Amino acid sequence: MRRRIESCPSAKQRILERQAKDRVEAEAMLGKFKGFLAGRYGNLVRAWRKDLDPDGDGKLQFTEFCQACRQMNFQGKLKALWLSLDKDDTGDISLEELDPEAVAHFEDFDRILTYFFNHLDTVWFTCLDLGNTGRCSLQEFLFGCKVLGFARNSMNLFRYLDIRNDNYICIEQLEVLSLPKAVSEEDAFQCAKETRMSCRARWEQSLKVAFGGGLIHGWRRGFCGSKRENHLSEEPRTSVGAAAAWVSKRIFFACGQSY
């Protein structure tokens, strides 16, 4: 009777099996790490900015990463965790490898701001701190994002910026973005004030030219579709220019005016 010859895995097969097992272990460790950070800090961005990358250089090497994890008292296999983060084997990691969705929020917001503004201070006084209180609440931030036309989740973006978790942000917390601070805060405030006034003036003129008559007449003819008594509170009708009209209306009210 012939004995069954059992084939033994080759060295290559054993290596591949071991690598597959390491990947599964690494992904499990990454899930554990993200859960730990979310539970302790509220979100991954806050953990990154406060304790993983407190100097703000945007990169972590393996030794820095291990030191930060130990200081946070994270219990886990750090080598496996590192392999799950540094998938491109560059020797360092960034926030994008920890939370790519958050980075996408920052990049989109940054793209909008750099298109319209030259300095963080002008953004701050024009869209986020209209009352010049030195801080921006969640509601003010959501309003500002709507004015700017930010398409992603504005509430999530606010949480990413609110590293103190006190439901307010200040201008220093926006320094994670690429726009520089203005040389003179006073000049930036004056620029923001003039920007709101000039936007309102251009908007009024465009409305009058497009629809004739006065400002109220132009608004009602161009953007209102309901009964006359609802014209002051309704949003613009859906059309090619609806998005621009909504932004214009918000800027108009941001000037502290009524019509």
TrEMBL record:
Entries under SUPFAM superfamilies matching the protein: EF-hand
Domain EF-hand: 50-75
Superkingdom of the organism of origin: Eukaryota
Keyword set, alphabetical order: Calcium
GO molecular function: calcium ion binding
InterPro entries: EF-hand-dom_pair, EF_Hand_1_Ca_BS, EF_hand_dom
Calcium recorded as keyword: yes
Gene3D superfamilies (alphabetical): EF-hand
Name used for this protein in its record: EF-hand domain-containing protein
Source organism of this protein record: Polarella glacialis
